[in-house]
Amino acid sequence: MSDRPEILDLVSATPSCNPILLAHEMSGGEWIAYDHMVLMANRLDELAKTRYLATLPKNTPIEEVAPFAKECFQDPEKMKAALEKPNKVIICMPPRHGKSMFCSLYFPLYWLGLFPTTKVLLASYEADYAASWGRKVRDAISEHGSKMGRDLKIAGTSKAASRWELENFGGGMFCAGARGPITGKGADLAIIDDPIKNDEEANSQTFRDKLWDWYLSTFSTRLHKGAATVCIMTRWHEDDLVGRLIKAQDEGGDRWDIIRMPAIAEENEQYGEYTRKEGEPLCPHLIPKEMLESAKGRMGEYWYATMYQQRPFPRGGGMYRKEVVEIVDSIPPHLVQVRAWDLAASMSGKRTAGILMAKDAEGIYYVLDSVIGKWLPGDRDKVIRSTATRDGKGVAVRVEQEGGSGGIAQVHSIVRSLPGYSVEGVKVSGDKIARADPVAAQVNIGNLKFLRGPWNSALFHEMEAFPKGRYSDQIDAMSLAFDYLAVKNVFRTAIYKPSIKVRSWRDETDLLVPTRSVTNWRKEFPS
Predict the structure, then answer these.
(1) Which domains does the chain have, with CATH numbers?
(2) pLDDT along the chain (527 residues), means of 10
């Protein structure tokens, strides 16, 4: 459906050409633009502006282009970058921080003010709750419609709280409960606002499966081509709707822009102009840090991490004590280093992970880097080769070898592609927990450190969720690397060994090599 004429006039005429200004105006100044709300509002505003740019004919006279779009319209590179951004956004935020008020009231108002011929779909955990927001949007238009660029009015023939239309334009809003029916026309903007009501629903595998089926078969089939989608919720479970959307994205599904807002920053954050330092609360004006810390003591680690930090992990984790791991900005010289790989055979299911680990002369262990992803076998092997080149030949390479002829062939291929490197395929035995226990012991006494890097948070998350988390690829690779550095043979049977003879792997003083690329191993390890 084309709404080209209305867009050109309305965008130019609308005084509140930003949802923050509109929210302030419609609320009579009561709505406050806290920093985290500005971050959310600006990203949602980009969805609306991207729709405008996508429907703007290339031959539009520049004087007819809305002021905010002129720069992009005149710069093909900026226009291309704007249109390549995902039109699907996930926002994860703790309770009582204003997410529904903005996303389910003010943003639909803003959208319909710009695009009055379009349809907005709002779904929540119950149809009545979703309809309550539909009623608020309808009433706001009835009261303030004349301030929204054109004289917007609710059509007298269709003005129920859960389904209403705009007079003369045909656009409007319809609401539904998650897992319920969605009938009528398709949507140009679709919003899912908190599809899970409570912990009983969150912990029910049956409920989560039905919610996912509803999303795939009912919700997503109501979207018009190019529709914008917003999913905003408090996390309840690692397998909740957001968890499944992220998993589907990792496996090649729809691209989502994901904004995670923990109640207390776990690291220094920056989203565009928004910044927050580690340890700072999300919005102290709404919920101060003292209240958050009190909630943590009352709720326990599991629910606090899930609902307030937006970092769900399954019950039964806790094998690793994240809080005792020191993050350092530099490492000592003369480390024994190894890059250990846990391989995935395809792009579905598990991931390929490569952990770079080291040990110093004092027996302290360091994790220096983590490479993780889903690749086809050929692409995966290229990543392993490029990583080895970056690490240098002074870093040993260990690859977990799966059983059967396929696993042997896999290791053969990697060994052949890395001439001059110390490469060894390793069979492992015992379960994941048993293999992870030795390195967990070092972690929990504070004898393992992380070199600061962008990969830190992902590995911390996997450590916290282990052994029942969705992924354990980095843990498996870390266990393999530690086994090499600790010189234990409990879990190792060599398929390939270095062609260099050394005195003794247990003589650690002979293994202290500089952390640089070594061109001749025989000089470092005399026979």
Answers:
(1) 4-261 (3.40.50), 322-524 (3.30.420.280)
(2) 38 55 85 90 90 84 82 85 90 93 93 92 95 94 80 87 92 93 86 93 91 95 92 93 92 92 92 89 94 85 86 68 89 93 80 95 95 90 94 93 74 90 87 84 92 92 79 92 74 39 40 38 41
Pairing between β-strand 154-160 and β-strand 119-124 as defined by DSSP bridges:
unpaired
pTM for the whole thing?
A: 0.63
Which tokens belong to 180? 């319920």
d(CA 384, CA 137): 53
Using CA of residue 153, residue 159, residue 162, residue 163, what is the dihedral sign? Answer: negative
Centre a 10 Å sphere on the Cβ of residue 514 and count the other Cβ atoms it contains. 12
pLDDT at 489: 36
- Exposure string (b/e) for 337-365, b if CB count within 10 Å is 16 or more? bbbbbbbbeebeebbbbbbbbbbbeeebb
What span, in angstroms and rounded, lies between the C-alpha atoms of 385 and 336? 20
**Omega within 30 of 0 (cis) for the link into 467:** yes
C-alpha span between 130 and 104 (Å, rounded) = 9
What DSSP assignment string belongs to 179-247?
Answer: TS---SS-EEEEEEE----SHHHHT-HHHHHHHHHHIIIIIGGGEEEEEEEEEEE----TTSHHHHHHH
Tokens 């929210």 locate to 23
Structure tokens at 85: 């951004």
Q: Kindly write down the DSSP assignment for every residue of 101-128, as one continuous string.
A: HIIIIIHHHHHHHH-TTSEEEEEESSHH
- 366 pairs with which residues across the strands? 358, 449
The stretches of 334-376 forming alpha helices (DSSP H) are none
CB 176 within 8 A of CB 182: yes
Q: Quick count: other Cβ atoms within 10 Å of Cβ 253? A: 12
What is the chain's Cα-based Rg?
Answer: 27
The pLDDT value given to residue 485: 93
